[in-house]
Design goal:
The complex is a heterodimer of chains A (188) and B (288).
Chain A lengths: L4 H23 L4 H17 L9 H31 L20 H10 L4 H11 L5 H8 L3 H21 L18
Chain B lengths: L2 H10 L16 H17 L16 H24 L11 H5 L3 H14 L2 H6 L1 E7 L11 H12 L7 E4 L7 E6 L5 H4 L4 E9 L2 E6 L2 H27 L10 H4 L14 H16 L4
Parallel strand pairs in B: 1-5
Antiparallel strand pairs in B: 2-3, 3-4, 4-5
Helix pairs in contact in B: 3-9, 7-11
The chains are: A mainly alpha (188), B alpha+beta (288).
Chain lengths: 188, 288
């Protein structure tokens, strides 16, 4: 870990500037509990690798890349916990196991169908759509985070949106078993 | 429901709009800093020696590598490749060779980039660390597929000389930069990109981390030429190779493979030959 005064100052600057963006990124994908852990891990990685964080706006995209990996790891852990819990409880009926979107906070009931429609996409396309719609990244920025070209982002986004639209049309009254709606800004 | 409407619905469904307050359970800035400090302390007490042995990544099946390769190659075919096709002719050979031989970082990148642009695999690989990574493809070493890529581009663009270049650095992040000036009549210049910059971290005379200019070039070029490029490529494929060789280079279909775009990129001569024919014809339509 690079602990020179310059490195400390750089870390503090990044922390101040991007804490909100990283917190929101995690909250859009994880539960509150998992968000705290993921947020800590993102900045731990940043701290350890402060010497290789690029300068300027590239730093923000670098952080999104770290956040993506951390959230992905957290979601895998969450799924393992769900499976383990199911085994432990010896669930023998036909109730579906909760999926990863269940832990998300949904502000309005009608949003649950949209979230579920996004969940029908492949994981990379889910992330692409979220980065576009929720993080409001440009196509070039999304390309940087995902390691693909802006052109690829164009095409994949277009296809993904069509699939989401199709999923929403196919089941416009998708059951609201997950995620659960809560009041805006409230705790789930 | 069109794409814009769907996107608008997704935007509306944002679980945490920037304007909304975070749930009370989320650590504040200051609380998180305390937590980081604690974890940092925990880590120091748990430090273990780290093995320097690199794990071997399983090689995916060849057919899968090819398809994934084409997906990963698209940025380069539409972008870097464009940069090379439309650069000026008649530039002198590498000015960096002597300095690169002494391990000068700027010269190493300079001679590597020139070699890459002219398809000189042997020279390019002299200046690459076998454990090299490509920025934004950091999950996999870049070295595995780099020779194939250079050979691929050698078939396509071996006839082209790189433009004048200036190398400088390293900057505060340890990257040296080499900027190539494009020909005044090139498509890149018309698109507002008169220069293309490569960046690399060089250690002991070898490139350990490389940033292709493809992303930046693609950002500028793609909106300008994509539509006509794709239309003409489609017409070419249909007219020249209706029976399927074009599928070797089906870049658009390659986008369907989206589960692992970080995989090593592999190219094939058939695809390069196919594209050469197309690009020759396309280049002839430009610049009068």
């Amino acid at each position: 870990m690079d602990r020179t005064p310059g490195a400390d100052a750089r870390f503090c600057g990044l922390y101040e500037e991007y804490y909100d963006a990283m917190r929101d990124y995690c909250l859009r994908r994880l539960s509150s509990d998992d968000t705290n852990d993921a947020l800590a891990e993102i900045f731990m990685v940043t701290w350890r690798r402060i010497g290789s964080v690029p300068s300027g706006d590239q730093a923000r995209l670098w952080l999104f890349g770290v956040a993506r990996n951390v959230v992905s790891t957290t979601q895998r852990g969450a799924r393992r916990r769900v499976r383990l819990a199911a085994k432990a409880m010896a669930i023998r009926d036909d109730r579906p196991l909760p999926n990863e979107t269940e832990s998300l906070v949904v502000r309005r009931s009608q949003d649950a169908a949209v979230i579920q429609a996004i969940a029908t996409l492949k994981p990379d396309d889910q992330e692409l759509v979220r980065l576009k719609a929720w993080e409001e990244l440009s196509h070039a920025e999304i390309g940087e985070v995902l390691g693909i070209s802006a052109h690829a982002v164009d095409m994949r986004l277009n296809r993904a949106l069509k699939k989401v639209g199709k999923a929403m049309r196919a089941d416009p009254k998708r059951k609201m078993s997950s995620p659960r709606p809560v009041e805006e800004g409230g705790e789930r | 429901m069109n794409a814009d409407t769907v996107l608008d619905r997704i935007i509306q469904a944002n679980p945490k709009p920037a304007s909304a307050e975070a749930p009370g359970k989320i650590l504040t800035r200051s609380a998180l800093l305390v937590e980081l400090d604690r974890r940092s302390g925990d880590m120091q007490t748990q430090d273990k020696p780290i093995s320097i042995e690199q794990p071997k990544l399983p090689r995916p099946p060849r057919s899968r590598r090819l398809v994934v390769a084409l997906a990963g190659a698209t940025a380069l075919v539409v972008a870097v490749v464009m940069a090379v096709v439309f650069t000026s002719d008649g530039q002198p050979p590498s000015q960096y060779a002597d300095a690169a031989a002494t391990g000068d970082a700027r010269a190493v990148l300079g001679v590597f980039a020139e070699s890459y642009r002219t398809g000189d695999v042997e020279t390019a690989l002299k200046y690459v660390d076998p454990e090299m990574t490509i920025t934004s493809m950091a999950r996999h070493p870049g070295f595995e597929w780099l020779p194939g890529l250079i050979e691929f581009e050698g078939v396509l663009y071996g006839r082209d000389e790189p433009g004048p270049s200036v190398c400088e650095g390293p900057n505060e992040n340890g990257f040296v930069l080499c900027t190539f000036t494009e020909s005044p009549d090139s498509l890149l210049v018309a698109a507002g990109l008169p220069e293309v910059t490569w960046a690399a971290q060089v250690v002991d005379g070898r490139i350990g981390n490389l940033q292709f200019p493809g992303g930046r070039v693609g950002e500028v070029i793609t909106p300008v030429v994509r539509d006509v490029f794709e239309r003409l490529l489609g017409e070419y494929a249909e007219g020249i190779d209706p029976e399927g060789t074009a599928t070797q280079c089906d870049l658009l279909a390659a986008f369907e493979v989206n589960d692992n775009l970080f995989a090593p990129v592999v190219f094939n001569e058939q695809c390069a030959t196919f594209l050469t024919g197309f690009l020759d014809g396309y280049a002839a339509t430009l610049g009068g």
